[in-house]
């Protein structure tokens, strides 16, 4: 019999804050965390807006020496993990560290370090580059540094699968617990690509919104006037725990992590497969893994990037996975309309949102939905949250490279 897994703790660092209650209040009220970029002069770029992390103090989690030896994506990951562990009520000094692990990834890793150190190389020569450059850059250091901070001696690795990174990490953590290789896994993603090099790269792909004069209105998933996603940064980690163990210690349980579906388009580097075929299969597999059918899912947190191709393909995929009639009855929203797109951390942030939506009985809105698109004709919870019972929900992440993941959460 498959071991059941629950979420007992959650932590995040986001453009809408790092306090869980405040974050949920802002998400459920439709507040945008997108603004003009403050971290550097973005005036040469076509897109000059982002979901930057503003309300964050790394000194709460790391010494000055530790901060200098890590890229910002690790700062976010360690902070999110620390908050998740505290939220879970786990007493790490009394736990068996060999039965606890971490699967926390990053889509890009230490891009800020790469940008800075390449500048040092050009200006001062190779002897002046930091000896910490490589361990600062590599994506697995999010998970590795979390393990050091929390004394986790079980399975530990970092997933890299673009925008599907965090959901793949959560799915991997679920499988590890199901197999009995660990009892607790910290899982999620972290990203800090809001720098000149990162934004430039996505600008040249023509993937970003150029609505620079209206930052808060720039991310508009499923709206006919959408013109690209808004890059964002942050991190999110959830504590996955075997259900009977969690109940025995009297843990507060947010929801059951009931199923995960993972597929690949095998189609194109950046564009989704025609008709969203790969996403359709991921959703179907996620429901099957959870032992649920289309009639059991009440809410979907869509990948919903605010790009022309993604939103249309995902709409088609939802219709294919659920059937057109059922699809029209499901509440669907994209929280990227408020947070922007956190790339490899997106699925982690959105899993937190799904868990809180299920617990509170509220489907958060898709803000900036003003002009309907005939190709996107489902219920996207436009502009205002809906209070409703959510028995089970789905979280979709669809990444460059054709990576698709669909996580299913069940109310307890």
Radius of gyration: 20 Å
| Order of neighbouring strands in the sheet with most strands | 5-4-6-7-1-8-14-13-9-10
Would you list the SSEs in sequence order as H and E? EHEEHHEHHHEHEHEHEHEHHEHHEEEE
Q: What is the helix tally?
A: 14
- Unreliably modeled segments: none
Shape: globular
Provide the helix percentage: 25-40%
Q: Which structural category do the helix and sheet elements fall into?
A: alpha/beta
The end-to-end distance, rounded to whole angstroms, is: 19 Å
Q: What is the makeup of the main sheet?
A: 10 strands, mixed
Hey, roughly how much beta strand do the residues contain?
15-25%
Overall mean pLDDT stands at: 97
Please tally the β strands and state the result. 14
Describe this structure in words.
By secondary structure, the protein is α/β, with parallel strands linked by helices. Helices cover 34% and strands 18% of the residues. It contains 14 helices and 14 strands. The chain has helices spanning 20-28, 64-68, 72-88, 111-124, 133-137, 141-150, 165-179, 196-204, 243-248, 277-290, 308-322, 324-327, 336-339, 346-360; strands spanning 5-13, 35-36, 49-50, 100-105, 156-157, 184-191, 234-242, 255-264, 299-301, 331-333, 362-363, 386-387, 392-399, 403-410. It has a 10-stranded mixed sheet, sandwiched between helices. A two-stranded antiparallel sheet has the order 2-3. The chain has a two-stranded antiparallel ribbon with strand order 11-12. Strand 13 (392-399) and strand 14 (403-410) form a beta hairpin. The two termini are 19 Å apart.
């Amino acid at each position: 019999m498959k071991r059941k897994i629950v979420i007992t703790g959650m932590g995040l660092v986001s453009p809408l804050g790092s306090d869980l209650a405040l974050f949920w209040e802002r998400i459920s009220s439709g507040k945008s965390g997108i603004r003009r970029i403050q971290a550097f002069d973005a005036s040469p770029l076509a897109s000059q807006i982002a979901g930057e992390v503003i309300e964050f103090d790394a000194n709460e989690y790391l010494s000055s020496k530790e901060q200098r030896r890590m890229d910002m994506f690790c700062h976010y990951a360690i902070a999110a993990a620390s908050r998740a562990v505290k939220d879970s009520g786990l007493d790490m000094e009394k736990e068996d560290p060999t039965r606890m692990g971490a699967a926390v990834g990053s889509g890009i890793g230490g891009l800020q370090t790469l940008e800075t150190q390449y500048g040092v190389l050009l200006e001062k020569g190779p002897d002046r580059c930091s000896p910490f450059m490589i361990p600062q850059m590599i994506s697995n250091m999010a998970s590795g540094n979390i393990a050091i901070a929390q004394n986790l001696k079980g399975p530990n690795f970092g997933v890299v699968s673009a925008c599907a990174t965090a959901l793949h990490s959560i799915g991997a953590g679920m499988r590890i617990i199901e197999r009995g290789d660990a009892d607790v896994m910290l899982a999620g993603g972290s990203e800090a690509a809001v720098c000149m090099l990162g934004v430039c790269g996505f600008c040249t792909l023509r993937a970003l919104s150029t609505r620079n004069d209206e930052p808060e209105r720039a991310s508009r998933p499923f709206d006919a006037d959408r013109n690209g996603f808004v890059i964002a940064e942050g991190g999110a980690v959830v504590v996955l725990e075997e259900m009977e163990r969690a109940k025995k210690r009297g843990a507060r349980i947010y929801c059951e992590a009931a199923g995960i579906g993972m597929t690949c388009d095998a189609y194109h580097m950046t564009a989704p497969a025609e008709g969203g075929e790969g996403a359709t299969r991921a959703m179907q597999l996620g429901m099957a893994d959870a032992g649920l059918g289309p009639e059991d899912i009440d809410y979907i947190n869509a990948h919903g990037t605010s790009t022309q191709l993604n939103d249309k393909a995902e709409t088609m995929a939802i219709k294919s996975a659920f059937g057109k009639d059922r699809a029209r009855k499901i509440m669907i929203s994209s929280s990227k309309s408020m947070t922007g797109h956190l790339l490899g951390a997106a699925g982690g942030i959105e899993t937190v949102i799904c868990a809180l939506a299920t617990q509170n009985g509220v489907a958060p809105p898709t803000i900036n939905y003003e002009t309907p698109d005939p190709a996107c004709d489902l219920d996207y919870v436009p502009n205002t949250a809906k209070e409703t019972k959510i028995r089970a929900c789905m979280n979709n992440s669809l990444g460059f490279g054709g990576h698709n993941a669909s996580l299913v959460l069940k109310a307890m």
